[in-house]
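Q: Entry one of two.
A:
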Amino acid sequence: MYPWRVPPAPAPSTFALGLAIVSLVVVGLARIRSQAFVVFRAVLFTVLGLCAWGLYTQAFVAAPQLGWLFIYGHAAMMVGSVALIRPHMKPVAFRILVSWPEAVYGAGTLLGFPIAILAAFGVHPPGWWLSYALAVVGWLQSMSARRDEVDLVVGEVEAIPQLGRHPHGATRVERPLRIAQLTDTHLGPFMSQQRLRGIVERAIASSPDLIVLTGDFLTMESQSDPEVLGGALAPLRDFDGPVVACFGNHDHEAPETVRQALTRAGAQLLVDAACTVDTQAGPVQVIGADFRYRNRQAHLEELLAAHPRQAGRLRLLLLHDPAAFRYVPPGGADLVLSGHTHGGQVGLVSIGIAGTAVSLFTSSPDHGFWAQHDNRLWVHRGTGHYGFPLRLGVPAEESLLRVHQAT
């Protein structure tokens, strides 16, 4: 008998205390945060609580002392939620004690959903711990990125009728356009100001001709202070070349914060606008699309018609969400640069298999090179993540694109 043995069922007083804590958290969030956020948190607490109880009953049989880890994980979730009432970037100690355990516990519990369902019907298969082991692997993977140099061919005569993954192409020109793309940085628990600053410095060190930032810079923790993002992007001021940006969906939660930070970094923000930049590889026309949830086809058709193609210049479209790529009219852009999906975030990319959760459950391009008509799309896997608390099998990306124009 372990002295720290956790009972298989909570006493009424324990249940009442837990319910009171959850209620206080929800009420506190309701008074300060948005209704949508409160509903999301309430649903999340409920689903995680039910899944955790199913997994806990299995863990208790195998190793009673592990019950305290479930208590710590759930407590970290509550503390992390309360901290969002007045969001700000957290110190390292908070991330170590709260944010990271909360992420591992939350991801592991969600991944263990099938086992929790079986437990509800009295079935107790082995391997309850596997989802948490996967979450630990995901946590480790979320702390680093894969660095690649990628050759892409655009301007091919062949038109692709159906949206799909596309070979990178064999054409090579003497002087390709070198692009460093940063997207979905999501400053917050897994992306400190110092870490993002290092990513920016490495991008500059790769000697690109052009740096593009394709949105979703912040999380709730970093929305209130433009100095946080501005400080992380500060090395861009010393880059001897153009820096161009567009908005992502989360940037509409704090647009002025993002605007001020980009201005401080010397980046040109294009919100349904265009510019022509001079690079060592020649002039490039860049169009930046604002993020839209609705009427995407009309939006893109109007935007591209308002900024017609300039002869003799590579035409880039910055489009945060790759799901909108299907609405780019034929000839709309030589290359579209997107992010948003975090590469699919959960998948098998780490072992060389393209499949991800995004490609399994949606029709949106998730990562890599895609084609439709004569348009080409690169979907960057992102440098950070948001929503699902970890990456798993889909590493973050720090790539340099070498763009070869076939015609």
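Q: Entry two of two.
A:
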Amino acid sequence: MEYGFYPLLWLFFLYSFAGWVLETAQAAVVHKQFVNRGFLNMPLCPIYGTVAVSFALFLQDLKDSWFFLFLGGMILSAFVELVSGKLLEAIFHRKWWDYSAEKFQFEGYICLKYSALWGLFGILCMKFLNPLVLRLGALFPPLVGKIVVWVLVGLLAIDFISSAAAVAQMKVRLGRIDEIGGGLGQITDRLGNALTRRIQHRMVRAYPNLQIDKLLAERRARLAQRTEGRVFAAGCGFYKLTLLFFIGAFLGDIVETIFCYVTSGVLMSRSSVVYGPFSIVWGLGAMLLTAILYRWRDKSDRYIFAVGTILGGAYEYVCSVFTELVFGTVFWDYSHIPFNLGGRINLLYCFFWGIAAVVWLKMVYPRLSNWIEKIPPRPGILITWVLVAFMVFNVLVSSLAMARYVERNTLASPSTGALAQLLDDRFPDERMERIYPNAILVDN
């Protein structure tokens, strides 16, 4: 079953509403009163919609296997929950949900019990609910369906802006106006204190961990600690993770190049971008692995190996599906290796991810962290933002060049124009095939 843009939007809104109903009903049973459990004012819990859309996009290849569908649903939902929980905690410095009291939990964000339920939900979605929802959606006249969807998108955008403005005002009260900028603060003033106070009251009522007084006291304590040392990229924050991304991307490209030369005797490019030896998959992997396992870096090698094997395999699988959906290109194919899953991942390379996780956290990361923290703050900040600007430009040009390469080789009459001509001149087929020697065009 192919999922187009509008069907995915329908799935997002329907499952977001169903999730809101489920969360609100559970809160009503527990607290004996109605509590809107969403971040938004609309009856939507976007995390449910996001998970459902992720299932539709990334579990298509697994729909014939109940076991892998269940396992994929567990891993995908755990990833979405973990990222969402960390983002919300970065904003409020409080967990919006906490599974610390549950068995087999990870940092309070995810636990085995609820991940297993998500896995069952993945089977239910892919086998039964999604086909039913899409058949019902097809009964709507196409124009009416599109109008309804875009109205919902508009309402969602307005709701998100108002909720974000309320968050901005809460952050102002926490003494963080310097990190917000003028935009959200101006929006907050225009919306008025009455509206933002109502939204804030609803959030605190639904999630008692978001009490402002406690947040303010903890924020002051953190600021006092930061001003004492004046260490660049201390802990595991934005600047350190960003620099680790670049280091991991460079080292990953070098390691893959050497591995290919040793195993096949061929020296080939393993870069993800057109400028420089950088593997985006390895860079993001190093950054995500560090962010997720930072608090657990002192755990045993076996623990880190097991988590790295699972996370690395899931991450590589998602990257494979994403590049195929976006670019129509397969950059690696493990179909010839035993114990592979759709040619996207295989057991041997998943073990390599586990070994890489141990080596990274136990040996490489501590040294890199010390070196990064020795950089003077002002040059460190400047270097980081210059590298970010370079990589954004690099990824943009690489995406345009790859899209044009696919267009030239799949369309009988590729588009013409100044940009197309520039890409043809700078990135002809010979150069693209030299940069991406393993790229395989997919017939969509």
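A: Comment on entry two: The chain has two domains: 5-228, 238-441. Residues 5-228 form one domain.
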